[in-house]
Amino acid sequence: MVSLTLEGVGTRYGRKQVLADVTTPTITAGTMTAVIGPNAAGKSSLFRRIAGMASGPGEVHIEGVPSGEQALAYLPQDTNATAVLTVFESVVLAAKQGRSLKVSEEELRDIDSLLAALRITELASRYLSELSGGQRQLVGIAQSLIRRPHILLMDEPTSALDLHRQMEVLGLVRSLADERQMIVMIALHDLNHALGYCDHALVIANGRMHRFGSCNDTIDQHLLREVYRVDGHVELNSLNRPQVVLNAPIY
Ligand SMILES: Nc1ncnc2c1ncn2[C@@H]1O[C@H](COP(=O)(O)OP(=O)(O)OP(=O)(O)O)[C@@H](O)[C@H]1O
């Protein structure tokens, strides 16, 4: 089983340290962890550090990945697609990732079914440069999922999507996490998405880890007040699911 453990992890840009002291229990296969916290707290910096794209103190322990398989994929917040490629070509390239460019029938079928699951089949032959922001975000999600990583880092993957698409994509990622036993770490601003789809919450505030725990234990009125500076609470809605209700910002 694949696992991910962070031990005193921080991120540095040049000599400037923007994140410190992120320590988690062992995060196990098939779980989704919401990485939450205010703007500029350090969520993307944590992802960049885990993905090996930034340096910093501490240790990122990844265990149990069979050799030859993709350990990790990182879907950044801004996927500025400027390459002269169609949607389908860009997903093929993501799937191959520098390996032989021979594409098997099975790989083509995988790509077709992923595009269908994301409901972007009709975009397959369109150029990336012709897509809307939300459509580009869906293609980025396809590119990260087609690699079948054991650990997927998704930085605000639904920020450009409409409500229907947000639910559809988060539901798909949740079911793939379960089916493929993939570890998903997902930065989210909508705490109801964290409560609805994730197991754990890793709270980052002011460049440090504030808390790690189950979403239900972690997302409460104290978090809203102390970390987000908003007055609000969590209640069970008419569907018997926990839901954040916001009242007003605190100054
Ligand atoms: N390349 C960089 N060089 C220097 N500082 C950076 C760099 N990237 C980010 N920072 C700084 O690091 C801090 C954390 O930024 P980060 O992008 O990790 O925050 P975030 O929690 O993802 O924010 P948001 O919710 O707004 O996306 C910020 O103060 C930011 O200005």
Automatic annotation (TrEMBL):
It comes from the Bacteria. The keyword Nucleotide-binding applies. One of its GO terms (molecular function) is ATP binding. Residues 4-231 form the ABC transporter domain. Keywords: ATP-binding, Nucleotide-binding. Pfam families: ABC_tran (PF00005). The keyword Nucleotide-binding applies. PANTHER family: ABC TRANSPORTER ATP-BINDING PROTEIN, HEMIN IMPORT ATP-BINDING PROTEIN HMUV. This is ABC transporter ATP-binding protein.
